[in-house]
Design goal:
By secondary structure, this protein is α/β, with parallel strands linked by helices. The chain has 5 helices and 5 strands. The chain has 2 domains: 58 residues, no CATH class; 71 residues, no CATH class.
Length: 149
Amino acid sequence: MVPKSSGTTNLPRKIDLSSGLQYGRAQGYPPLFEFCHTFATTVLHPNIPYKGGAEVILTCGNTDGFSKTLQCLSNEWVEGRDPVAEREGILVEEYRTAVQTARPRGLTVASVRIDDEGMCADGPRGLRDVLENWDFGKGMRPHLLYTVT
């Protein structure tokens, strides 16, 4: 049971509703961030050479994380820019959420066929087919690939 107020002033240890349901620090809920950072530093990446260990970014879910990744790795295309020379592309599995997240940024979205083992390398709409028959009239060849592991 999570108490309404825990009474502690130690933020990484303060687990209660009065603080957990509030807007918090930009890095996220302190106890969750602290747990994830400690786990990443001690279990997943204990030998990382950076001061402070591994970096952790908390998101609201996979679509939020994917959206933030797109913001980091692509330039938003806007009307008036050269659609061929400047429009960036992304390869995605036939996965609806990825397409719906990338399209509003103006990216050329190219779907690659999938089967029970993941993205298809060959065959119609496979990775090779999509890249070898890329329509440069829609923009640059994709520099991003989104796949579900």
